[in-house]
Amino acid sequence: MASLHVKKGDRVMVIAGKDKGVVGEIIAVHVEDQRVVVEGVNIMKRHRRESQGAGGRRIEGGIISAEAPIHVSNVQLVTKVDGKEVVTRVGYEREEVMKKRADGTEYKAFRSKRVARKTGKEI
To answer: Taking every annotated instance into account, which residue ranges of this chain make up the domain KOW (predicted)?
Structure first.
């Protein structure tokens, strides 16, 4: 399964939908569905009946608000440039690194890193 251009903890801006323009942090990532849950975005209300929970614990009823997932194509990464937040695309660069095996020998390998297209800096 391929990875996504954003991950948990990234600051993103919604670029499409009813919450267009809202900036928030990614709370959860669902790679298999290509969806992300962003803090304060796509708030859905659910009506819950009061009930008896496991162990005799009472579950309170009422209207509960929570974030619902949105498609990853509707968000774009936000980075800081000169103190201002700007949206940017995500690129990838591979750098050569030295790794050690269990027996102590070293070998060359490549590490992939995410790069902000606007600034060229590692994210």
So the answer is: 5-32
Domain of residue 49, residue span? 11-89
116, 77 Cβ separation under 8 angstroms: yes
pLDDT tens digit sequence for 76-85:
999 988 888 8
Q: How many domains does the chain have?
A: 1
**What is the C-alpha to C-alpha distance for residues 40 and 65, in angstroms, rounded to an integer?**
10
Residue 73's SS3 state is: helix
CATH code of residue 63: 2.30.30.30
Ramachandran angles phi, psi of 56, nearest 5°: 75, 10
pLDDT, tens digit, 9 for 90 and up, residues 7-43: 999 999 999 999 999 999 999 999 999 999 999 999 9
